[in-house]
Design a protein that fits this description.
Length: about 300
């Protein structure tokens, strides 16, 4: 009798749950789903500024994608995107983890110093871009410091060799506090008794870090890396403000390149195709992350 009464109640609650999430689902479908589908369809056409108003664009299949991947500029942009993302992830995660381990210790003014470090993360990205542009200009802070030690600094933002490192440095300045903040919360979830037991057994700091900290923070580390990859891979604001993708596409990434194709060269379909490449890369990473989560749950 009990089970017969429980089933209708749980079914009713399930219907109520679907009813409450329905508005959010409709909103996401309209705000995100429709533009995504329209963009995918647009990438399969030949729409540009000539046939935009007349509506005479025709379906050309994967021709835009074939032309993109056969274009040397797009190959450079794809390479820049992965180099930028992977380099930023390495520095952001490594330095952020070191800061998290350091600020987990209790010492005077630790909270104040940690709050000051978070200022760079809380600043609008447009302000960060303008700040980076001033720091790395020919007479900026970096070259001034180099001159004081007898080194003639390069023209950071107009040199194809040094422009991407300059943008990477500013992106890391923003990303390190973000990584530190998330990793500190993961470290705080580990009980001190675990470390105390290991110390009693004679475990060194390196052994405690390798066999206790890293395994217990596996889920936090995975989340930080995946979020960092997604946020960094789709970067646009910082490059556009500091270099506008130049010089000679040396700092162009998929975000800035698709914008340039669509709103500078008015090749709307090719810009949509570049955006779909960006979406596909992030989709693959997202599916990989979900696979790892399911594997960990099992």
């Amino acid at each position: 009798m009990m089970s017969k009464r429980i089933r209708p109640v749980s079914a009713q609650r399930q219907k109520e749950a679907y009813f409450f999430i329905l508005p959010a689902f409709i909103y996401i479908l309209l705000v995100m789903g429709y533009p995504m589908i329209y963009n995918a369809v647009l990438s399969l056409k030949n729409m540009d500024v000539k046939n935009l108003k007349s509506g005479t664009s025709v379906f050309i299949g994967l021709q835009n994608y074939a032309e993109l991947f056969g274009n040397e500029t797009f190959q450079l942009v794809l390479k820049n995107t992965f180099v930028f993302t992977i380099t930023c992830l390495i520095f952001q995660f490594t330095i952020g983890f070191a800061f998290a381990l350091f600020f987990k210790q209790r010492f005077p003014l630790s909270g104040v110093i940690r709050g000051m470090i978070l200022i760079s993360y809380m600043m609008p990205i447009s302000v960060t871009g303008l700040l980076g542009k001033n720091i790395f200009m020919n007479d900026g802070l970096v070259n001034d410091l180099l001159r004081r030690i007898g080194i003639t600094g390069p023209e950071w933002l107009t040199n194809t060799t040094f422009s991407l490192p300059a943008v990477i440095a500013m992106n890391c300045w923003v990303g390190i506090p973000f990584n530190m903040l998330l990793l500190i919360s993961g470290l705080s979830s580990i009980e001190n008794e675990v470390y105390e037991s290991a110390m009693i057994d004679g475990a060194s700091w390196g052994q405690r870090f390798t066999f206790i900290t890293l395994p217990l923070m596996k889920s936090s580390i995975l989340a930080v890396l995946m979020l960092g990859f997604i946020y960094t891979f789709r970067a646009f604001d910082l490059m556009y403000i500091m270099t506008k993708g130049g010089p000679l596409n040396s700092t162009d990434v998929l975000g800035t390149y698709s914008y340039m194709l669509s709103f500078t060269q008015f090749k709307f379909s090719k810009g949509s195709a570049a955006t779909m490449v960006l979406f596909f890369c992030l989709f693959v990473v997202g599916m990989f992350y979900l696979h790892l989560l399911r594997k960990e749950d099992k």
